[in-house]
Amino acid sequence: MSNLAVLPIILPLVAAIVLIFFNSKVNVSRTLTKVFSLIGLGLSGYIVWEVLKNGTIILETGDWVAPYGIVLVMDSLAAVLVMTTNVIAVACAFYAPSAGLGEKENYYFYPFFFFLITGVSGAFITGDLFNLFVFFEVLLMASYALIVLGGDKVQLRESLKYLLINLFSSMLFVTAVAFVYGAVGTVNMAQIAQRVQEADQQGILTTVGILLFFVFATKAALFPLYYWLPKSYVVPNPVISALFGALLTKVGIYSIFRVFTLIFVHRVDLTHEVFIWFAGLSMVFGIIGALSTSNIKLIIAYNIIPAIGFILLGIGVMNETAISGSVYYLVHDMIIKSALFLLVGVIAYVAGTSDLKKMGGLIHTYPLLGWLLFIAAFVLAGIPPFSGFIGKLLLLQGAFEGEHIIIILIGLLTSLLILYSVAKIFIHAFWGDKDAMGPIEKKSTKGMVAPIVFLLALSVIMGVGAEYFYPIADSIAAYLMDPQIYIDSVLKE
Amino acid sequence: MEIIILILSGILFATAIYNLLQKQLLRIVIGTALLSHGAHLFILTMGKLKTGQPPILTDGVSDYTDPLPQALILTSIVISFGVTSLLLVLAYRTTQENKTDNMEQLRGKANE
């Protein structure tokens, strides 16, 4: 039964290898991608059900007993995130054929797509700090290939910067792992947690923790380490941007989640208090970025940063309500960000430009797109009854319990500005005279709208049906607040 | 011995960061290579350097070399080797397409 834990890594890996052989046959690749992503979704759904019913699944690879070998820990948080990853993979797999990739589709797009999913799933599942680094590299390698796919002038320029910043932070990650190993003599997360607890997290350990935070914050694009993000997420095809926006930064914030709810939890006054300020500054600077541009893709890319801020806020406040809010918001944000990236991809495609100033009156030709964007804006900003509202409510309630009043005000103000930044797209692109852009030819959006509707419907269900999803987030939060459960389940003492 | 290696890895880090902050692409690439060397040496030192001991733990033997840092370094070397080769190709293509290898001129414009 424990082999279930490794399947979300194996399946996309096999899919990627199979797809390499069908690279020249686009139609076969498309069909196989859809089939594999649907199998992945079914499998991860089953795993979630299994984990919620029977508790954490642990696989000791190669039968090496816990602290010595690499362990894969499929706990409730990992299972839910793996499932969300697969949901996004399905949406992107169905969107990709009509995404206008052109001949880039033949440049091993589908294999890299699945290698990315492999890396992301692996990073969620692994219970070993060095293995986390390895899976980071797997997903980064795939992302380097995807971001530069086709090799346009702009793409080359931006992917170079993307690669450099990630290479730098990866090397810092290795250094931080070395520090951890030097200080506690293990790289198994459960054992690190145990030993940090025994040593009462003295000075050097907190320092190592902050170094790890710095590494993950670079990957997650937190203030002040987000400068690499917006432009590099804009240059590739919308479907690739959607994958990046939904998955890559979230792996970074997930790692912060893991490390700072499991390992470095004994000096909350030194570490977590600081996070709250980083969270607030990320919100403010992210939203300023989003308001400063008229490029619709950039607006959405900048909107990633305040969302990461919100999730970090929950970790910083560190009480059960706030953590459950963070978990809820994390899942919500993965879904809505991919939906928005796909949506602006379609809008930029039908309008023939991504500059907001050159758009107008699209609602006459594309009413469905307009209303989808309208709903998406509400979901993103957290208007009840959509999913963003539940997450933010829990986060702010948690912050209120923790008596962090200023951050609540910043959060509320940011939400309002998020709504404005997306509503700006709606107003400028969709309102206006029918002929605002001159005579436009109606382009077919066949195949592009269905995945977006699917993702938005999920967001709406997560909001309206919060009654069913909230208990899961709550149980995950209760589980995260007690690191001993994780330690005991891995080390079996 | 550990102290000397640590200082060496510190020097590597410092030169790496100096090179990373240059404007010429090739220097930056060399900077990343130096950075990874520094990090790898650092991992090795964290397992304590013992010369002439096998990395095996058998009953009764208390003096052995820690095998884990070596396994970690091996993994990390392979990864950084791969990334460096990709980076070189990418830097070469970027230079060709954009007709410059100066980072100052690779900033890009608004609204592309």
TrEMBL record, chain A:
Residues 127-417 form the NADH:quinone oxidoreductase/Mrp antiporter transmembrane domain. Keywords: Antiport, Cell membrane, Membrane, Transmembrane, Transmembrane helix, Transport. GO terms for biological process: ATP synthesis coupled electron transport. GO terms for cellular component: plasma membrane. It is found in: Cell membrane; Membrane. GO terms for molecular function: antiporter activity; NADH dehydrogenase (ubiquinone) activity. The chain crosses the membrane at residues 6-24, 31-49, 69-95, 107-126, 132-151, 163-184, 204-229, 241-268, 274-291, 298-317, 329-351, 363-384, 404-427, 448-470. Belongs to the CPA3 antiporters (TC 2.A.63) subunit D family. This is Na+/H+ antiporter subunit D. It comes from Oceanobacillus jordanicus.
Automatic annotation (TrEMBL), chain B:
The keyword Transmembrane applies. InterPro entries: CPA3_antiporter_subunitC (IPR050601), NUOK/Mnh_C1-like (IPR039428). The chain crosses the membrane at residues 6-21, 28-47, 67-92. Its main location: membrane. GO terms for cellular component: plasma membrane. Keywords: Cell membrane, Membrane, Transmembrane, Transmembrane helix. Pfam families: Oxidored_q2. It is a multi-pass membrane protein. It is found in: Cell membrane. PANTHER family: ANTIPORTER SUBUNIT MNHC2-RELATED. Belongs to the CPA3 antiporters (TC 2.A.63) subunit C family. NCBIfam families: PRK08600.1, PRK09094.1. This is Na(+)/H(+) antiporter subunit C. It comes from Oceanobacillus jordanicus.
